[in-house]
Design a protein that fits this description.
β6 (111-116) and β7 form a beta hairpin. The chain has 2 helices and 11 strands. The protein has a 6-stranded mixed β-sheet, with no helix packed on it. The protein is globular. It has helices spanning 2-24, 49-52, and strands at 41-44, 63-66, 68-69, 88-96, 100-106, 111-116, 119-120, 125-127, 137-143, 146-155, 159-166. The protein has a single domain (29-166), classed as Jelly Rolls. Helices cover 15% and strands 35% of the residues. It is an alpha+beta fold. This is Homogentisate 1,2-dioxygenase. Residues 1-21 form the signal peptide. Keywords: Signal.
């Protein structure tokens, strides 16, 4: 009997500790350029470049992208990191009207490429989102006005939340590992 009570006490203490740890992490107030993160719209990612412009991303608006198994996706350019054959991927169109640095934020450790004219663009910085924000990864790109493709590869899950946002002048670039 004592052993059952001791086990129950340990279980309850562990649950209370977990709840306390979760409540201690409150979502931070995000900078204005990332404010759209908390109100995503649902979209289905394209499986090829030709279909990607049909429902383009809107800078500043987060999307929960439904992804396809990577074997069903024809990338516009070879991803910078070869995705696991069991992972998910997708493409989305993006139109930029003003030159500047743009940040692509994602909720998981996916590979992010921005493609122009069939070539992936070099990133201008990498980093992680603010603690407790749900933003796991950020990659910055210097973009000119024009049309681009956003490629997401290597997602363990069948969806990924992403947000493309113009960085305000003077914003510090993301730093860290990609």
């Amino acid at each position: 009997m004592f052993l059952r009570h001791a086990c129950l006490a340990l279980l309850l203490a562990g649950a209370a500790g977990t709840a306390l740890a979760q409540s201690a992490c409150e979502a931070p107030a995000l900078p204005a350029h990332l404010a759209g993160w908390s109100a995503p719209v649902a979209r289905v990612a394209a499986r090829d470049a030709a279909s990607a412009q049909a429902a383009p991303l809107v800078p500043g608006q987060a999307v929960d992208l439904a992804l396809a198994p990577v074997r069903e996706v024809r990338f516009a350019a070879e991803p910078g990191k070869h995705p696991d054959p069991e992972s998910h991927a997708g493409l989305a169109g993006l139109t930029v009207t003003k030159a500047g640095k743009y940040r692509v934020a994602a909720d998981s450790p996916v590979w992010i490429d921005v493609v122009a004219a069939g070539r992936p663009l070099p990133s201008a910085g990498h980093g992680h989102g603010p603690a407790c924000s749900g933003i796991r990864k950020m990659v910055d790109f210097q973009l000119e006005p024009g049309r681009y493709l956003l490629q997401i590869a290597g997602s363990a899950g069948a969806s990924a939340r992403v947000l493309v946002a113009a960085l305000p002048a003077g914003e510090v670039e993301a730093e860290g590992s990609r």
